[in-house]
Amino acid sequence: MGMIKRLLLAIVLALAIALLWFHAIGSGWFGGPWQSEVPNAGPRVISEPLITREKAEPRILFGDLHNHSNYSLDAYIFNTKLLKGTGRVTPADACDFARYCSALDFWSINDHAESLTPRVWADTVKTIQACNDNAGDPANPDMVSFVGWEWSNGNSDDVPSHYGHKNVVIRTWEEGQTPTRPIASKAIYDISKAPSVVIGLMSLLEDLDVASDFGWYSNEGSSVPVCPDGVPAHQLPDSCRDIALTPTSLYRKLDEWGFDSIVIPHGLAWGNVNPLTADFRSQLDEYEERYQKLVEVFSGHGNSELFVDFDRISIASDGGVSCPLATADFTPCCRQAEKITRSRCSEPESAMCDDSVESMMKAYLKKGPLAGRKTIKDTVLDDWEGCGQLQNSFQPSAAYVPRMSAQYSLALGFDAQGEPKRARMGMIGSSDGHQGRPGSSYKETNRVLYTDSKSVGREADFRFRADRESGAFYYTGGLIAAHTDGRDRDAIWQALDTRNVYATSGDRMLVWFDLINGPAGEVPMGSEVTMPVSPRFRVKALGAFEQVSGCPDYAIAALGKDRVQSLCGGECYRPGGEKRKTLSRIEVVKIRPQVRPDEKIAPLVEDPWRTFDCPSSGAACVAEFEDNLYAEQGRAAIYYARVIQAAEPLIGGDPFACEYTESGQCVKRNYCIGVRATRDNNCTAPAEPRAWTSPIFVEYPQ
User: One Pfam annotation, family name (predicted)?
Assistant: First the structure.
């Protein structure tokens, strides 16, 4: 008995020592502050595409206004050996990647404000200043780098208080010309709430110094005090965390700083960070056009463009719930649960089977669309046949939220209180990458390095809210293209401010979209005009340059072969000459904003309203058209163009990874997650790259 007691005492003592050890690591006892290195000296060689328009026309520059480094605590976790193993990245790494790997013309850093401390915010601003100092002639820089942050509100299923994620970008970066602290949506980042022992357990799969530094940084973030209420932002001490709980509060604090800035909503239809029943109407009263002039319609987290009118569970006016019918593009999981249940009956058409289906449906509807799947035991992912996901769509966001989509938001004419309100936003694309690699969409060659996917071939695949299959819905991301009169900061900002920009899914297509009979003459995308006569439009487009393997000499000379491999993955943006990819077609979308609060949205979105096939012999495409019904309808209309390029293999080109029958029916899904998602599997499938122009807003005179 004495020996057993001594053994138990030894086990308890060993556990206590282990817990103390992991607590010490998770508390940062062995860690310390880390920060950016100095960005590599520039500038790079500027190689602009040949624009086949008159010399007086603006040039087109490409950028990425949404990127994270390890200063975002979630990015730190993602890049550890525990998940991706891509290593720690800083804003300086992002600067070097944007300059030499992806050869961007402009970009911004947007780490989560909730995890930024005064120390790392100061380092971020300093790094962006250095990145711009290395850009060469300020009037003709190789690249413009903007400083900013992400305001991340929500992540709950409470619709009224969920305002989503928004990127703040500041026009200036010089000393005294940026906020001395970012504005967060809450006092502490969720990861920092984890017990120190849990953080310390990272050391079992990660180097001790990496785990310890993470614990130190997490603890540093938790110790930042919240700024006092009622004090103007520019009068607060630099050492506190400024909090804005709503967009209106965020705008007020930005007003107090007085610096030019824009606020860009993103992740609109991404179900992993939005309530599945979210509705942009509920936050329209918090929309201010002077800040929210742009919306991120595409990113590495997917496409948020389309409004497809569906519900996961139907709710009647009396509060009763039922399961909606399936459509060609969306199957509610309650409907798939019915199919599974009936298939397991020995006599599927019997009354007894009907009773089983009815009992299951009641249980499912009571649990809701997320937990409802648990009402059926012993299923595998493919049993659910892609239910709950938007299908037959280009690279959709996971667990698509249709009433947060760009089309739905643009079609609204009234807020939740029935007051007239419209959102007029231009469209952009970005990466939303958490590996410090802005503009990583130049080649579809390195899924783990170029996307946010955390799947690297393990049986226990790491996925947020695994019931939403989010792990398969990661892409290399998009870009913003800006029509500018120069390469400098002010020229780029002017394009952002006037919405004279467009989004791409990653390829650098050249696109022009103009109203050619405006009251004052021709005006470009993003414009707002009032006219009583039928509008006439012109779309012109060129396919993206064909790429060749490897990196250009200037990148190797600046970074060295080893860093080209570690930072760029051995591949860079590298056109092989003037040869361009073939365009397939141009699609035009027309949206008529609501004129009554009760007007249904779906009939107001005409997609596509017009379609123009492109010549098969070349990369150029032109379409001109007129809306002859505009004057007859006598109401405002919004027009934008989608330029579709010929299909090619894309990472996540088919997030369902379907096996098809000869008739094109998907009979099995092999999601790129878990053991299928090995590091050498890029999970590519044919898909059509595309660009989305900013809308032209045509108002009918009242």
Answer: DUF3604
